[in-house]
Write a structure and sequence with these properties.
heterodimer; A: about 120 residues; mainly beta; globular; B: about 0% helix
């Protein structure tokens, strides 16, 4: 069982919709990440939160808006997406930001389809 | 800048046969190397990691990898694969900024 829980598992939305992806971890980790993954490709880092503050934004378009309400929760708000934004969105956590152990704990992902 | 090259995009193998998934890296600083596995419709899971010490690293599910500094390689091996090992495997190196740099992935297809 994954210790990082993502909801929803599947999401279909139109280009004018507003939706949110949610991620939760109860391992006491202080760093949380959003990745985007296209089919048969490696994950691409989008955002990093460290101690509930945005630490890294990898030049992600503003139609993606992250939020970290507390140390256990991470949201990704979606608005006015494009069909090319269809992908698997993975949440991950680690004890500290970019911990030397390198171990990221990933959720199962939210598969997003933009029509 | 660090980079990772996975030399095979797909590796088909029969059940109970040995397998090697190849990974080469480039890094100008201390090397931290990882293998992650992604089963169908799931997130990534750490298989094993090399941080320092013994160059032969053992991981979960019977996998092991050998760090070879002179050849800048970190190949993943398993002596006998199972159908359940069918998955996407990603080699990764920790970059200067601390971010994980992933290779393009290798699809392991285990046939009965």
């Amino acid at each position: 069982d994954t210790e990082v829980t993502q909801t929803p598992k599947h999401l279909v939305m139109g280009m004018t919709n507003k939706k949110s992806l949610k991620c939760e971890q109860h391992m006491g980790h202080r760093a949380m990440y959003w990745y985007k993954q296209k089919a048969k490709k490696p994950p691409e880092l989008m955002f990093v939160y460290s101690y509930e503050k945005l630490s890294i934004n990898e030049s992600v378009p503003s139609r993606f808006s992250p939020e970290c309400p507390n140390s256990s929760l991470l949201n990704l708000h979606l608005h006015a997406l494009q069909p090319e934004d269809s992908a698997l969105y993975l949440c991950a956590s680690s004890q500290e930001r970019f911990a030397n152990t390198g171990e990221l704990f990933f959720g199962e992902g939210s598969r997003l389809t933009v029509l | 800048a660090q980079s990772v090259t996975q030399l095979d995009s797909q590796v088909p193998v029969f059940e109970e046969a040995p397998v090697e998934l190849r990974c080469n890296y480039s890094s100008s600083v201390s090397v931290y190397l990882f293998w992650y596995v992604q089963y169908p419709n799931q997130g990534l899971q750490l298989l094993l990691k090399y941080l320092s010490g013994s160059t032969l690293v053992k991981g979960i599910n019977g996998f092991e990898a050998e760090f070879n500094k002179s050849q800048t390689s970190f190949h993943l091996r398993k002596p006998s694969v199972h159908i359940s090992d069918t998955a996407e495997y990603f080699c990764a190196v920790k970059g200067n900024t601390g971010k994980l740099i992933f290779g393009q992935g290798t699809t392991l297809q285990v046939k009965p």
